[in-house]
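Quick start: what a row looks like.
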Amino acid sequence: MKKQHFVMLALASTCFVASQAGAMTKDEYKVAKEKVEADYKVAKTQCDAMKDNAKDVCQKEAKGKEEVAKAELEQQYQPSDSHARKVAEEKVKAAYEVAKEKCDDQQGEAKAACVKQAKADEAQGKADIKAMKKTM
């Protein structure tokens, strides 16, 4: 239950911050986009030292962070309700992908319960986004 409240708070704060921020210039956008891509490459390289599922989880986290950062960057560059929803969608997607990957470390009923919880959290996040669409 606390996780659901956290997701709603994150979505609301993202929308609030995004609506308050001023649009960035094209040059600022380009520099920031290059930084996001460079950060992803560094994070992905750090994952190479890991093995097995830990490496897979690390890669999913790195990719998720990159996708969220790109969506946030688009929102800063061209603020809109559509981009705000995209940020929220990317956060839900990234959280689901990481959670699902972490479930691979488990077996049997524990793994099934883990996957079920990941899907439930994703469904709740999507429902929150759908509700956000109606209020925008």
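That is the whole record. The two ends are 25 Å apart (CA to CA). Helices lie at 2-20, 26-47, 52-77, 81-103, 108-135.
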